[in-house]
């Protein structure tokens, strides 16, 4: 019989609301507790989702001896402090994407996990969707030949509100960290490596980026590009171009299928891989399976990659002049130049 893991939710907000139904679809997962520093919020969330225990501060949550895993869904700027709090109390952690505010914070989280001997993973749920796993298998098998280019978009139209975390520098806002991390991580997963060079432009508002266009180059010259934005919606599609064919992935960040075309034969193949609910259960299962096997990180979403992607986004933000409170205005990347990740 599969072991049951007790989960604690740190930050009962919008993301937590979306993910909660998926716990019922992840075998062995039980949401035991929720914690919030906002008076009354944990209790209301617990009542809505029938969670047994509600705590009025995060310290009480991480001190619950029955909680095995903490799922952190607080704003980007607080990921380091909250992950460290949980890990220093011996809790395994699944932390919402983006992994941290910047690479320095991400590296500190990684070091803390290693020191405490606990499991830590970025909640990049895209990588665990069955359709995306299948696409990766086919690309690695050479089904569409050598992949040379990936083109993705992840934009949405969210009304401007300077108090909303997306537009708030103090919360680590901006569309690169909020949405751009999806196509960035997707390209890295498909290619099996992090980009070596990158370049981009952004439009800013209230000190954060609200529309970005980014180009990535990998070790063998493979390319990827993406747009992301908060002021105009897009189809959320990714195209993977190989020497023998191409793959189109609708809603690539939560794909339930894809379309493949072979150039020589003109043959098209539609692959459908539906799932229940929104699909967060696959990343939840990854966390529990890794812990079952004694692993401290996931081989599909390793900590080193999460840190490197933060380095890429740091450099892009610096080139655009997006600096969050508390960050130093160190020399960034000049517009028009490339930056290497090493």
Mind explaining what this structure looks like?
There is one protein chain. This protein folds into 2 domains: 5-123, NAD(P)-binding Rossmann-like Domain (Rossmann fold); 127-281 and 308-340, Dihydrodipicolinate Reductase, domain 2, CATH 3.30.360.10. α4 packs parallel to α5 (103-116). The protein has a 9-stranded mixed β-sheet. The chain has a 6-stranded parallel β-sheet with strand order 3-2-1-4-5-6, with helices on both faces. Residues 331-342 have low confidence and may be disordered. It is built from 9 helices and 15 strands. It has helices at 14-23, 41-49, 58-62, 79-88, 103-116, 130-140, 175-191, 281-292, 303-320, and strands spanning 5-10, 29-35, 53-55, 69-72, 92-96, 120-123, 147-155, 197-205, 208-217, 223-229, 237-242, 245-250, 257-262, 268-272, 339-340. It is α/β, with parallel strands linked by helices.
Give the tags:
342 residues; alpha/beta; Rossmann fold; Dihydrodipicolinate Reductase, domain 2; 2 domains; nine-stranded mixed beta sheet; six-stranded parallel beta sheet; 9 helices; 15 strands; globular; disordered C terminus
Query: Spans with pLDDT under 50 lasting ≥5 residues?
Result: 331-342
User: Numbering strands along the chain, what is their spatial order in the largest sheet?
Assistant: 14-13-12-11-7-10-9-8-15
For the residues shown, what is the average pLDDT? 94
- Name of the top-level CATH class of the largest domain: Alpha Beta
Topology as a string of helices (H) and strands (E): EHEHEHEHEHEHEHEEEEEEEHHE
Oligomer: single chain
Number of H/I helices: 9
| Shape field | globular
| Percent of residues in β-strands | 25-35%
* Main sheet makeup: 9 strands, mixed
Write down the CATH topology of the largest domain: Dihydrodipicolinate Reductase, domain 2
Distance between the termini: 45 Å
**SSE-based structural type:** alpha/beta
């Amino acid at each position: 019989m599969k072991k049951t893991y007790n989960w604690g939710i740190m930050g009962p907000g919008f993301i937590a609301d979306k993910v909660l139904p998926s716990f019922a679809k992840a075998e062995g997962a039980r949401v035991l507790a929720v914690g919030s520093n906002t008076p009354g919020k944990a209790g209301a969330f617990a009542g809505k989702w029938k969670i047994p225990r509600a705590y009025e501060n995060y310290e009480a949550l991480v001190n619950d001896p029955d909680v095995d895993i903490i799922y952190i869904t607080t704003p980007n700027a607080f990921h380091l402090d909250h992950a460290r709090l949980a890990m220093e109390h011996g809790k395994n952690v699944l932390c919402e994407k983006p992994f941290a505010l910047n690479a320095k914070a991400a590296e500190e989280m990684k070091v803390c996990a290693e020191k405490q001997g606990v499991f830590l993973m970025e909640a990049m749920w895209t990588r665990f969707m069955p359709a995306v796993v299948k696409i990766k298998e086919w690309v690695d098998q050479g089904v569409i030949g050598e992949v040379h280019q990936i083109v993705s978009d992840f934009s949405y139209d969210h009304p401007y509100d300077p108090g909303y975390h997306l537009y708030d520098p103090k919360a680590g806002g901006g569309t690169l960290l909020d949405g751009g991390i999806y196509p960035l991580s997707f390209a890295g997963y498909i290619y099996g490596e992090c980009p070596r060079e990158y370049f981009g432009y952004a439009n800013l508002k209230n000190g954060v980026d609200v529309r970005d266009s980014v180009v990535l180059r990998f070790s063998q010259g493979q390319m990827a590009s993406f747009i992301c934005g908060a002021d105009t919606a897009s189809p959320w599609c990714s195209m993977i171009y190989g020497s023998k064919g191409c793959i189109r992935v609708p809603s690539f960040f939560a794909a339930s299928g894809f379309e493949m075309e072979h150039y020589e034969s003109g043959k098209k193949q539609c692959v459908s891989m539906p799932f229940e609910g929104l699909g967060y259960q696959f990343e939840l299962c990854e966390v529990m399976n890794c812990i079952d096997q004694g692993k401290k990180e996931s081989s599909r979403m390793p900590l080193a990659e999460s840190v490197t992607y933060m380095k890429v986004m740091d450099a892009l933000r610096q080139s655009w002049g997006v600096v969050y409170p508390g960050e130093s205005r160190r020399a960034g990347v000049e517009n028009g130049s490339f930056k290497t990740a090493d």
